[in-house]
Amino acid sequence: MLFAIPFYAVACVAFGTLDPIFRDAIPQWNPLAWDFTQARQIFASLATGPLRGVAVRTVLYVACAMAICFLIGFPIAYFLARHAGKRKLLLLVLIIVPFWVNYLMRMLAWVNLLSNDGLFTRFMRIFGVNYNWLDGSPITVVLGLVYGYIPFLILPLYATLERLDWRLIDAARDLGANSRQAFRLVTVPMSKAGLVAAGILIALPMFGDYYTNDLLSRSPSTEMIGNQIEFFLNASTQPQNGAVLVIALSMFLLLLMSFYLRSTRQQTRQTAR
Amino acid sequence: MKRNKKSALIYIVWGYIIWSLVPVIIAVIYSFNDGRSRTVWQGFSLRWWFTDPYASVFHNPETRNAISNSLILAFATLLVVTPLGITLAIGSQRIRGRGSHVVQGLTSAPLITPEIVVGAALLITFTRLFTAVPLGFAAQLLGNVTFSLASVVVIVRARLVSIGSSFEEAARDLGATRWQALRYVLLPMLWPSVMASLVVVFATVIDDFVITSFLSSGVNSETVPLRIYSSVKGGATPALNALATLLVLASFTVLIIGLFGLSTWRKRHGERGGLRAALADVTQMEN
Q: What is the pTM of this model?
């Protein structure tokens, strides 16, 4: 109930009408009288109009960040699950620590390092790299997303790989597969559901992120959809546009969530067997 | 060959650990900087922590206000959400058959809904629908309750599943009423999950930025994360690093107290697992 009512309210504002003088939203509480003109306009703008850039950029940034997260996160989770040995608890604790360090603190740490006289910027100057990291750089935003969300990927990945039956891989090796084949044909298919679930788990908050972008770039050239929602709802006089965007984003994320629920169910079925 | 691959992997692991922790450690160190800069080291001092009578964390009225707002919000949320979550978990556990899947889906959906969606939806609700709830503390409290309720339900329900129904049935056979079985048998056994959810909720609320920010009403409901967010943009002094360090200290203190409490509880009640099981409780991992 706590969850259903707010979404109804969003829909009522999104599909309501505009005050003719102040352009402020008048919510329409009767679903039969919902007016979709404004919503249609925003959706059209997302598909072909001025908001298209924002939508494409959001998907692109999240895709890049996800790819990097998996490239770094998978080997770590794999090592922890298979080879960590005696030091497993120590490594696990060290990997859980960022989980408990406030997100803003971790972003603040990078703002300090990347600012004009920051340690990292000065360090890179030694190599002749003179780059303005905090001035609307897509690289910084993507790496910021990676840094922010990778702990949330490693733990579920580790949990998935930990549960795998490694005897099956030994069996594959015994039957003549080399290590790469065993990995590709046994490890990956067996952990696929878990990989998908873990990936979606970080994709969801990344799609809704606006603060990473705001702290590390602050430039309209790197804005994502979350920034637009925040702008329309908090800083503009057109909350209706914000409400429509929230609905657009939720619809998209709902799709991802149903994938997530499906693959977690698959996973529990697999382990139950 | 295999050895080589393993050692390459361990370099990645340590590289990752260094990459994830060193920036934060540097930020903590710079909170002790003597100069006004957060990036150039000018010697050690405690001026941004205590000594400076106006700008230091413990003297500046704005940061003090933010700290007390954060603590009040966190404790108030705990008071509301813990009993509510336990009740919901026990209740939803009792539902049998087809309904149970629906309830389970509904309670876990908030866990994976991005905060911006929840925050925006609640903002619209409180400004258009339930206008009786003013933005600021009341709205922030309700928002954080909504968002953290799911994690309490999930943690407590996991414990309920592992306890099973046999203890309660035994108590009923021995003549306890329904209420007595619940009060004297089930509730005491839930204690570790209650402790774990206290820790998780406290850490979530005190760190929460998005929902608290959407529902804030300006300076008088500014919490520590909001204060950090708004001052990163301006040219803030190392007092900002000190404030962020305090926030990190707060969640780790609660985490360590919780872990310690959990493992002593387990030891006293003869449950296996120790630290690792306690860690699993708090990180919501089923190991």
A: 0.82
